[in-house]
């Protein structure tokens, strides 16, 4: 029975998504305490998003659009994922009470919203995909430590302490993290989580990200710099999304700036880095790379990156873990804030949209 004192929340997504997001009993109990909730099953063909990923695009099935329109008359909050059509003015005119929309996996940029239409209608547009940032930041730290220990050399083949003695040259490449300078290419949620993990190591942290403010740098505790300066740190970690502005942003010029003995880690997207330039830089043998992503993926069996002893590879698994469940619980956190009259934290904004499109920042906040 519907509790008339509670707001009505509608899940609008596929059966696969429903199983994924609504299987956490603790999360659902939390949600039930603050809202009536129901599920509208929507299946259909996904459109490609701006990066060419079908899984993040809206459902183009007209029947799904009609079903959603019919279900929205008394809905106060809408949670979408795979299977949802584009939420635009045509749909919003059927939702007179709607004030809160959240995509629980939108790659942080709302491909299932027409943002202008939502903002015009006074609807908060929330994206809690940043839950995936937690495991990615953990694996970024892991790759930093592994690469500083030159794992590409020491953990290949049947090597153990009883049968293998490192050469003086190999030993000289082993480093620790304490007190190192760390350059982050990108200052979003992954970077901010990673910075908290780096604190005990007393690292000097430098970030390149034109979309974040000096005020954030001050409050989180890092320095902002150009990409050239970031590339000259002891450890360089690539954390930016793939956009028209970031594709190939780390090329021959940038990689040449890396100091001998430095470590390069990429947990973002392989295409952010010029593959040929990376291979050429690694062939010099004076830097170590820890790569969770690569271009192309999957890596061809005969690709030279697979045989390089100064490279440690993982197969694009950084986001695996509890990230997806965290996305859902963050959505509940946001709904609680919204219903309590507090400001939500993970709103999609003109600035985040400019970031995703690779456009110049909306403003440079001080």
Helix and strand layout, with pairings?
Blueprint: E1 8-13, H1 15-21, H2 25-34, E2 36-41, H3 62-71, E3 77-80, H4 89-92, E4 100-103, H5 115-120, E5 124-127, H6 133-148, H7 151-154, H8 168-172, E6 181-185, H9 189-198, E7 204-208, H10 214-220, E8 223-224, H11 227-230, E9 235-238, H12 252-256, E10 263-266, H13 275-283, E11 288-291, E12 311-313, H14 323-339, H15 350-357
Parallel strand pairs: 1-2, 1-3, 3-4, 4-5, 6-7, 6-9, 7-8, 9-10, 10-11, 11-12
Helix pairs in contact: 2-14, 6-9
Radius of gyration: 23 Å
Low-confidence stretches: none
The largest sheet, given as strand count, sense and whether it forms a barrel, is:
7 strands, parallel
What's the CATH first level of the largest domain? Answer: Alpha Beta
Helix/strand order: EHHEHEHEHEHHHEHEHEHEHEHEEHH
CATH-defined fold name of the largest domain? Rossmann fold
How would you describe the shape? elongated
The CATH architecture of the largest domain can be named as: 3-Layer(aba) Sandwich
- Count of discrete alpha- or pi-helical segments spanning 4 or more residues: 15
Widest beta sheet: strand line-up: 8-7-6-9-10-11-12
Detailed description of the structure:
The longest helix is centred in the last third of the chain and has 17 residues, at 323-339. The strands form 2 sheets. The protein has a 7-stranded parallel sheet. Strands 2-1-3-4-5 form a 5-stranded parallel sheet, with helices on both faces. Helix 2 (25-34) runs parallel beside helix 14 and helix 6 crosses helix 9 (189-198). 33% of the residues lie in helices and 14% in strands. The chain is elongated, with a radius of gyration of 23 Å. The protein contains 15 helices and 12 strands. The chain has helices spanning 15-21, 25-34, 62-71, 89-92, 115-120, 133-148, 151-154, 168-172, 189-198, 214-220, 227-230, 252-256, 275-283, 323-339, 350-357; strands at residues 8-13, 36-41, 77-80, 100-103, 124-127, 181-185, 204-208, 223-224, 235-238, 263-266, 288-291, 311-313. The mean pLDDT is 90. The termini are far apart. The chain has 366 residues and is an alpha/beta fold. The protein folds into 2 domains: 8-127 and 322-357, Rossmann fold (3-Layer(aba) Sandwich); 132-313, Rossmann fold (3-Layer(aba) Sandwich), CATH 3.40.50. Helix 5 (115-120) links the parallel strand 4 and strand 5 (124-127).
């Amino acid at each position: 029975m519907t509790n008339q004192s509670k707001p009505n929340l509608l899940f609008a997504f596929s059966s696969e998504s429903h199983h994924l997001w609504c299987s956490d009993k603790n999360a659902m109990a939390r949600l039930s305490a603050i809202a009536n909730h129901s599920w509208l099953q929507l299946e259909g063909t996904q459109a490609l998003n701006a990066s060419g990923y079908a899984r993040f695009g809206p459902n183009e099935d007209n029947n799904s659009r009609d079903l959603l329109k019919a279900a929205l008359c008394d809905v106060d909050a809408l949670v979408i994922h795979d299977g949802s059509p584009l939420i635009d003015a045509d749909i919003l005119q059927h939702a007179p009470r709607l004030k809160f929309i959240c995509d629980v996996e939108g790659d942080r940029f709302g491909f299932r919203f027409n943002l202008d239409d939502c903002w015009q209608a006074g609807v908060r547009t929330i994206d809690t995909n940043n839950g995936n940032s937690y495991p990615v930041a953990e694996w970024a730290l892991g790759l930093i430590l592994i690469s500083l220990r030159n794992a590409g050399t020491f953990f290949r083949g049947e090597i153990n302490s009883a049968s293998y003695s490192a050469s003086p040259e190999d030993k000289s490449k082993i480093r620790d993290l304490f007190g190192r300078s760390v350059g982050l290419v990108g200052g979003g949620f992954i970077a901010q989580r990673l910075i908290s993990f780096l604190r005990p190591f007393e690292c000097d942290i430098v970030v390149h990200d034109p979309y974040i403010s000096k005020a954030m740098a001050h409050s989180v505790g890092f320095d902002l710099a150009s990409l050239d300066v970031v590339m000259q740190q002891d450890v360089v970690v690539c954390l930016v999304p793939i956009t028209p502005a970031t594709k190939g942003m780390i090329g021959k010029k940038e990689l040449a700036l890396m100091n001998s003995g430095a470590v390069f880690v990429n947990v973002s997207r392989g295409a952010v880095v010029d593959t040929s330039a990376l291979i050429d830089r690694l062939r010099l043998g004076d830097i170590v790379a820890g790569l969770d992503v690569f271009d192309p993926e999957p890596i061809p069996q005969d690709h030279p990156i697979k045989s390089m002893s100064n490279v440690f590879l993982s197969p694009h698994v950084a986001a695996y873990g509890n990230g997806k469940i965290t996305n859902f619980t963050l959505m509940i956190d946001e709904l609680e804030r919204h219903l309590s009259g507090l400001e939500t934290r993970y709103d999609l904004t003109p600035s985040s949209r400019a970031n995703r499109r690779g456009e110049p920042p909306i403003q440079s906040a001080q």
